[in-house]
Amino acid sequence: MAEIIRSKTLVVDIHETYQKQTGRNHCAIYGPNGKQTLTIPVSKVNGKHTLTKDIRISYHQPWQKNHWRSMETAYNNSPYFLYYQDTFAPVYETKYDFLIDFNTELLLRTMKLLKIEHALTFSSNFIRDGFLLQREMLLSKHARFDNPFYLQPFHSKSGFIPNLSIVDCIFNLGPETAHYLQSVGSPFS
Asked: What's the whole-model pTM score?
């Protein structure tokens, strides 16, 4: 989100080949036992050659209910959870066929909260030149940004945990989130 705030345009490449072990279907939150990864189970209709736009969400397990319960447990005592939960809860109550639809809805709601006004667009074909490095750095589970400290509900137990989902910032910093993101160091500089 820090990079989105800094950018002038936002293009989502929906024609890339979907890659496992990335932020496309994972996020991390700060639960009572430390960092907790939430994973959306997916189905690749064309195996290794499935495009991002064609990745289907699997509902063989109640992942939405489990994810939302995990977020309630993690953030119920944070300063802004009660204020912002109604923004995110409906996304976890709606059944989306495709991962891109779920992610887009979360992204649009987050952008609205952060008052990010530039348009979200989708590629009409695979984006090659210049975007590959940024795409992989941003979507990698190992991407690291220079995050300044802020209070998190379990920091006295496990310390500050950086590089979590944007909901960690929103539920803990509320209206200061956009300002905080502007202070986050970029891995691209």
From this structure: 0.87
